[in-house]
Amino acid sequence: MNKRKNPGLKTTHPKTLPKPKIWVWIAGIVLITLLAYTPVFSDLKEFTNWDDYAYATDQPLIKNLDGETIGNLFKPSTTVMLNYHPLTMISLAWDYQQGFDDTNNTLSITPFVRTNVVLHLLNTALVFLLLYRLSRRKIWAAALPALLFGIHPMHVESVAWISERKDVLYCFFLLVSSISYLQYIDTKKTWWLGLSFILFIASCLSKAMAVPLPLVLLLIDYLENRKINFKILLEKLPFVIVSIILGIMALQPQRLAMGGAADTPAFYRFLYGCYGFVVYWLKLIVPIRLSAFYPYPALTKSGGLPVIYYLMSVIALAIIITPFILIRRRKNARNQVILFGVLLFLAMTVLVLQFISVGPAIMADRYSYVSYIGPLFIAGVFLQDLVENPKTRSIILGIVSAYCLLLAITTYNRISVWQNSETLWTDVIKKYPYEIEQVGNNTVIKRIGAKTAYKNLADWYAEHQQLDSAYNYYHVLVLAGTKDAEVWSSVCNIYAMKGQLPEALNAINKAISYDPKNTDNYIKRGLVHMQQGKTDDAIADMNIVLAADPSNAQAKDLRNKFMEHHPR
């Protein structure tokens, strides 16, 4: 008697893994990311004194969300911290309305944190969708990059720092714009291209770092094997025009922040850029010694840079050139992805690699937020090939799982650094401390530390009336020979509060010598003079202020009070 075969028992060995519903993968990745970021919702979480006051707590532009305010935010002349990003400010204004308590006159940080995290979770899901489509619907080629994007410690800065709302917001619009562009390629419907263009503008209005998107779209064309012709280039023309206009608008105020860029040799700027380029790749793989601030290196005794900077330029060029060599030898899908990933990273970082301007830091974790999508996609495609091979599947998934767990734990722990200004700057100083030695009457600086960290931590202690701690960190900068007028002015405050008036006078004189146009320092010196009983000197300081600014009400009131105490 013949037995019927049960088709459900048919044994096969599929070449690829079963593919569950896409939403299950996305939900799982988003959940893991959320778990890694739970410490950011701590009751101890505070705004930091690194731009958060300018963006959130003390920013008048976000205290009202009415038509007039929104109109002002979109004016090209309206910048915040030398940045033009009206959509970012509108989103912060929305959070301000949710978090401000009129009764107690207090501002809760919770709405700001919640919005940052929600945008990061959305971005994580969008990275999956974008790469799933670019990889021709390969699960692992999208899942690994999306998970690493979500839990990578380098991205903590963009999420946990309230002032970096611009990062998570511009990335959101940029990713949706890219996905819309792929829809245009698939459907040939022009309205998808129009939607991509509108979202691109929204991305640029959230952060100017979005301006390289036209280059990214060309890279997508390359990966999609579209023939680059006049029609393809014409599609990008509106994008390019917007990039140029908004790029110029962003660059104009940024010129004020260039500091000593003109005094820095162009070759050194090239080496700085190459160094940052390579270190971003290294921290992608091994995210150690992460810092909110990476100071520039000290020059050698001969006036040059350490050897490592010259070596990094060779490595950087090798990273960029290698994909072209691979493509020239063999143009296949994998090599195309490698070229795509490297050029995507380059396109999204080239504007912040310090080739053009030299700011206070040589690199920043936040600049990896979008750019890492390129290298992560390369990793995802390689994982897809390894997982599809039954011989390597188990061991590779085990290694990848352990690596992802390690990254998630690192991110979980890293978030505590952004709890408040004290934890933030203490962490930076731990990694970049000053080493100063007193040899007789000479002060020898053996190692230059992160000046910004010392100053901001001292400011935080002073604000919290911990004067001794504040003085200790200011004093390090004084020993280092700082020419920062704000530091000397703060030192004056501490001496004055301690009743050490001669030291206070010396400090404020230093501040005035480094910034003679700051009238506030003359007012401060006048107050010190008055405390010393030097009425004539105090009145003279008020006269200096009023000569520069006749409408200064504080100087007028103080002069009148000083005149009342003037000996007759």
Descriptive keywords:
4 strands, disordered N terminus, two-stranded antiparallel sheet, 2 domains, 65% helix, Serine Threonine Protein Phosphatase 5, Tetratricopeptide repeat, 568 residues, two-stranded antiparallel ribbon, single chain, mainly alpha
Helix percentage = 55-70%
Oligomer: single chain
Number of DSSP strands?
Answer: 4
The percentage of residues in β strands lies in under 5%
In N-to-C order, the SSE pattern is HHHHEEHHHHHHHHHHHHHHEEHHHHHHH
Low-confidence stretches: 1-18
> Which structural category fits the helices and strands?
mainly alpha
Separation of the first and last Cα atoms: 131 Å
Radius of gyration: 28 Å
Strand numbers in spatial order across the main sheet: 1-2
Mean pLDDT, to the nearest integer, reads 91
Shape: globular
Largest sheet: 2 strands, antiparallel
Please tally the helical runs, counting DSSP H or I stretches of 4 or more residues.
Answer: 25
**Number of domains in the coordinates?**
2
Task: Produce a short descriptive summary.
The protein has 568 residues and is mostly helical. It has helices spanning 22-36, 52-57, 67-73, 86-99, 110-134, 139-151, 156-160, 165-187, 190-204, 213-223, 230-254, 266-285, 307-329, 333-349, 368-371, 373-388, 390-414, 421-431, 451-463, 467-479, 485-497, 501-514, 519-531, 535-548, 553-564, and strands spanning 100-101, 106-107, 435-439, 442-447. The chain has 25 helices and four strands.
